[in-house]
């Protein structure tokens, strides 16, 4: 299977805040890209922000745990 | 029982398509010459957790390996097959044209991050060594003159960010001949002057990434990160590609 990954990265930019860029790009695409159907797309912009916040917290917490 | 839509392909890409998010089989709903890949889903749209979004993307990526696909936005629910067929009929011309234009291509994301902003962000997230930079009540640090960031300073930062974005955009112009199409977002965040999506022929991805690396050598104050290959999420809607 073709798996999206970081193809090139300079310096310390492989993460955005506490999140890997590949995960941020994935969220951007599946929540804000793609064909929009006339029917029920259930996510609003406010939800996206919440999800990003949640994921930032999860990743930050995991990183903290890993350091201990 | 509703239907969760994963993407739209041409009918010559018929199944089996493997399993969907709930573990049940994916199936095709045909309205010639298009086929919508769906799975049955009980209740509301799936919760958009990191794990679910990643699983969804993997399913769409697997479908992309089978052939050209226009991915659907996560959470696209339709009531039943007649509603799916109505969607395919209503948007037939546009969807067929888009499928034709993304055939054999993948999406590459290119993010330019400001080194200075990344450094400041990193410093802010680090606990202060002597406690002098953090207020006892947890509020944000004050500037040296005792006040919080002024409106003028904020506007100056925004202006510098836009100028930086335009300059970086100019440096990246040489990527365009390698791409079939591109989308650009200027300054989506204070530390990201530029966020691009490129539609690149599958066979030219290595060439594209090599050129990004070459361009990066001349950029002193920004870092570049390239991810992919993605299904063409950024080219499924909006201005025709």
Number of helices of chain A: 2
Q: What is the residue-mean pLDDT of chain B, rounded to a whole number?
A: 84
Please state the oligomeric state of the protein chains shown.
heterodimer
Profile the largest sheet of chain A.
Answer: 2 strands, antiparallel
- From the spread of the alpha carbons, the general shape of chain B counts as globular
Cα(first) to Cα(last) distance of chain A is: 35 Å
Global shape of chain A:
elongated
Radius of gyration of chain A: 15 Å
Estimate the helix proportion of chain B, in percent: 25-40%
Helix content of chain A: 40-55%
Query: In whole angstroms, how far apart are the ends of chain B?
Result: 35 Å
Q: Using DSSP, what is the number of strands of chain A?
A: 4
Which range does the strand content of chain B fall in?
25-35%
Mean pLDDT of chain A: 63
Question: In words, what does this structure look like?
Answer:
The complex is a heterodimer of chains A (68) and B (241). Chain A is of the alpha+beta class. Chain A is built from two helices and four strands; from the N terminus they run βββαβα. In chain A, strand 2 (15-16) and strand 3 form a beta hairpin. The longest helix of chain A is centred in the C-terminal third of the chain and has 23 residues, at 45-67. Chain B has 241 residues and is of the alpha+beta class. Chain B is 34% helix and 27% strand. Chain B is built from six helices and nine strands, in the order E-E-E-H-E-E-H-H-E-H-H-E-E-H-E. Chain B has helices at 50-66, 81-90, 92-102, 115-125, 151-171, 205-217, and strands at residues 2-10, 27-31, 34-41, 70-71, 76-78, 105-114, 181-189, 192-201, 222-230. In chain B, strands 1, 2, 3, 4 and 5 form a five-stranded antiparallel β-sheet that branches. Mean pLDDT of chain B is 84; it is low at 129-146. The chains are: A alpha+beta (68), B alpha+beta (241). The interface between A and B is large, with 44 and 63 residues. Strand 1 of chain A pairs antiparallel with strand 9 of chain B.
């Amino acid at each position: 299977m073709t798996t999206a990954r970081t193809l090139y990265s300079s310096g310390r930019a492989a993460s955005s805040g506490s999140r890997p860029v590949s995960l941020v790009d994935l969220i951007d695409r599946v929540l804000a890209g793609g064909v929009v159907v006339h029917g029920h797309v259930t996510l609003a912009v406010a939800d996206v922000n919440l999800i990003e916040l949640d994921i930032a917290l999860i990743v930050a917490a995991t990183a903290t745990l890993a350091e201990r | 029982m509703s239907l969760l839509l994963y993407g739209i392909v041409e009918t010559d890409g018929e199944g089996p398509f493997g399993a969907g998010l709930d573990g049940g089989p994916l199936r095709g709903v045909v309205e010639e010459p298009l086929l919508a890949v769906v799975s049955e889903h009980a209740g509301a749209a799936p919760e958009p957790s990191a794990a679910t979004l990643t699983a969804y993307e993997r399913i769409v990526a697997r479908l992309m390996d089978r052939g050209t696909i226009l991915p659907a936005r996560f959470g696209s629910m339709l009531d039943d097959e007649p509603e799916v067929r109505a969607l395919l009929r209503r948007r037939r011309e546009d969807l067929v044209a888009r499928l034709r234009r993304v055939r054999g291509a993948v999406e590459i994301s290119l993010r330019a991050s400001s080194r200075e902003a990344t450094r400041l962000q990193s410093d802010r997230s680090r606990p202060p060594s002597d406690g002098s930079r953090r207020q006892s009540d947890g509020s944000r640090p004050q500037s040296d003159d005792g006040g919080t960031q002024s409106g003028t300073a904020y506007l100056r930062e925004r202006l510098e960010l836009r100028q930086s974005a335009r300059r970086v955009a100019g440096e990246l112009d040489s990527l365009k001949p390698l791409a079939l199409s591109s989308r650009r977002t200027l300054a989506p965040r204070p530390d990201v002057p530029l966020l691009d999506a490129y539609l690149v022929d599958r066979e030219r991805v290595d060439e594209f990434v090599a050129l990004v690396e070459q361009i990066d050598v001349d950029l002193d104050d920004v870092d570049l990160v390239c991810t992919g290959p993605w299904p063409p999420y950024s080219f499924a809607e909006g201005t025709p590609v």
